[in-house]
Amino acid sequence: MSAPTSPADLYRHSLRLLLDKDIPAWVDLWAEDGLMQFPFAPDGWPRELEGKEAIAAYMRRYPETIDLHDFPELQIHHTTDPRTVVVEMRGVGRLVASGAPFDMTYIAVVTVRDGHFTSYRDYWNPLAAQEPGADFTGSGR
Predict the structure, then answer these.
(1) Domain limits at 76?
(2) Given this model, what pLDDT does residue 2 score?
(3) Measured between alpha carbons, how far is 2 from 23 in angstroms, rounded to an integer?
(4) Are 104 and 91 in contact (CB under 8 A)?
(5) Is the dihedral of CA 77, 72, 4, 60 positive or negative?
(6) Model's pTM, two decimal places?
(7) What would the pLDDT profile of 49-97 be if each residue is shown by its tens digit?
(8) Helix/strand/coil (H, E, C) string of 22-68?
(9) Domain-embedded: residue 21
(10) What is the rounded distance in angstroms from the CA atom of residue 55 to the CA atom of residue 6?
(11) Residue 55 in domain
């Protein structure tokens, strides 16, 4: 497969890598100075990850934590900035440790430069993180 060229194509490709549990390839989609933010993160959870190395460390355990099955209801909205998209989606699967269902709704604002993610603001439901056994970020908080 050739490298995705548009922000929407890169985002779709990133979801495929998450479903394939290929975290190293997912991290390779990031610019060295990429910034990942979680504006709604509850206390004790990271609100900002600066740089590809920090993002890689955060995502390293993701497949051991969440077994993703699908991203239904994916909608990618283009903005007036051709480098930025707004994404609405659900991630569904199961929490590996408990076997409990995982169903999270996301809105993300994603900016791409030179074929790499440079900014990713992830607006996820912080209430789901407060449920027992809900360390599903892979961070090991």
Answers:
(1) 7-126
(2) 60
(3) 19
(4) yes
(5) positive
(6) 0.87
(7) 999 999 999 999 999 989 999 999 999 999 999 999 999 999 999 999 8
(8) CHHHHHCCEEEEEEEECCCCCCCCCCEEECHHHHHHHHCCHHHHEEE
(9) yes
(10) 21
(11) yes
Rounded Cα distance between 120 and 110, Å, is 5
Q: How many domains does the chain have?
A: 1
The verdict on residue 101 lying in a domain is yes
Per-residue tokens: 19 = 């479903």
> Letter for the amino acid at 25?
A
Written as one letter, the residue type at 104 is: M
Q: Is residue 135 part of a domain?
A: no
> Vertex 121, ends 73 and 91: CA angle to 5°?
30
Residue type, 62: Y
Measured from the Cβ of residue 138, the count of other Cβ atoms closer than 10 Å reads: 17
What CATH number does the domain containing 42 carry? Answer: 3.10.450.50
Tell me which amino acid residue 44 is: G
Q: Dihedrals φ, ψ of 103, to 5°?
A: -150, 105
The amino acid sitting at 117 is: F
